[in-house]
């Protein structure tokens, strides 16, 4: 049975020995696909954590990797820019290396070498007022960012230097997340009321951002955005009032398996694991010291199974599959 989530009480229910490049290469002893690890933004410890989905998260050996800015990060003084991490994605750069892209509501944006850590590949502090909320890497090495209070989408010229703060900006009220669509070569973004598709043009040093289309959300206050792994024609979206899938080819919001069970208020993240088809969600949990956080990630396995992965004492905001195809 699915545990109570937020105010919806009663709603039904590869380790670091190798860099995680994708879950398909790993399998259980029985030959079944092994789910990807899960990366969470954990606000009790102000950290990014990668966890083994096959282990009990209460055990220390479930933690595969973690990061928070330190003296060796070359992110400057983060005493005011780090404290509420709210997004993290694994990406491979044009140089073939992997990076964990992170945002913090207090203002820090960063691209962290994975698994090495050390000096960041890029970082900028935008201050607290914009409330950065989403991030993704573009093919040319630049970085797209969404800020909810700033109501903007920006493309930063991260390709031009480790602290390059030049950007191009498009207004989007309540901007909460961005996702680069390599198949269509467009940037998707979600705001309070709209799902927007942008063309990114220009040059790496002088990018442009042009709106191509906008779609009214089926419910208000958009929050999360990402791929439906296994179906390149669909996107996951969440809002304060539900979870949705969008079909790119038709421009329509469409039904999907286990839709009733996946429904909740204030879903902070959703995504499908490419290897197993398992869907994860995070929603605020009643009693958590952080009113927008939870200590668990809900998994929807197969046609009718559920599982809860609990990290004791945690204040998890977003969770994502630690796999590029799945996030």
From TrEMBL:
<dbReference type="Pfam" id="PF20138">
    <property type="entry name" value="DUF6528"/>
</dbReference>
<keyword id="KW-0732">Signal</keyword>
<protein>
    <submittedName>
        <fullName>Uncharacterized protein</fullName>
    </submittedName>
</protein>
<feature type="signal peptide">
    <location>
        <begin position="1"/>
        <end position="26"/>
    </location>
</feature>
<dbReference type="InterPro" id="IPR011044">
    <property type="entry name" value="Quino_amine_DH_bsu"/>
</dbReference>
<dbReference type="InterPro" id="IPR045383">
    <property type="entry name" value="DUF6528"/>
</dbReference>
């Amino acid at each position: 049975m699915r545990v109570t989530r937020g105010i919806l009480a009663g709603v039904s229910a590869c380790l670091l020995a190798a860099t995680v490049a994708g879950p398909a290469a790993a399998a259980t002893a029985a030959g079944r696909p092994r789910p990807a690890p899960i990366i969470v933004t954990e606000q009790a410890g102000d950290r990014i954590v990668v966890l083994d989905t096959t282990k009990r998260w209460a055990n220390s050996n479930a933690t595969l990797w973690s990061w928070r800015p330190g003296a060796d990060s070359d992110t400057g003084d983060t005493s005011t820019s780090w404290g509420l991490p709210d997004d993290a994605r694994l990406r491979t750069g044009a140089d073939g290396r992997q990076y964990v892209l992170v945002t913090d509501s207090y203002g820090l944006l960063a691209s962290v070498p994975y698994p090495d850590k050390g000096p960041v590949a890029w970082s900028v502090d935008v201050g607290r007022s914009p409330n950065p909320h989403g991030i993704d890497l573009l093919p040319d090495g630049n970085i797209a960012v969404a800020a909810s209070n700033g109501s903007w989408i920006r493309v930063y010229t991260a390709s031009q230097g480790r602290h390059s703060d030049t950007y191009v900006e498009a207004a989007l009220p309540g901007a909460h997340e961005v996702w680069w669509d390599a198949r269509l070569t467009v940037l998707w973004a979600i705001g309070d009321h709209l799902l927007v598709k942008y063309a990114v043009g220009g040059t790496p040093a002088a990018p442009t951002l042009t709106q191509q289309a906008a779609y009214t959300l089926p419910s208000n206050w958009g929050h999360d955005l990402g791929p439906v792994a296994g179906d390149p024609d669909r996107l996951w979206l969440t809002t304060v009032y539900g979870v949705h899938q969008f079909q790119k080819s038709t421009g329509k919001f469409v039904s999907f398996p286990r839709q009733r069970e996946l429904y909740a208020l204030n879903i902070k993240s959703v995504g499908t694991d490419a290897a197993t088809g398992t869907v994860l969600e995070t929603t605020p949990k009643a009693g958590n010291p952080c009113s927008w956080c939870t200590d668990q990630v809900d998994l929807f396995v197969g046609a009718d199974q559920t599982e809860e992965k609990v990290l004791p004492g945690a204040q998890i905001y977003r969770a994502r599959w630690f796999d590029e195809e799945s996030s």
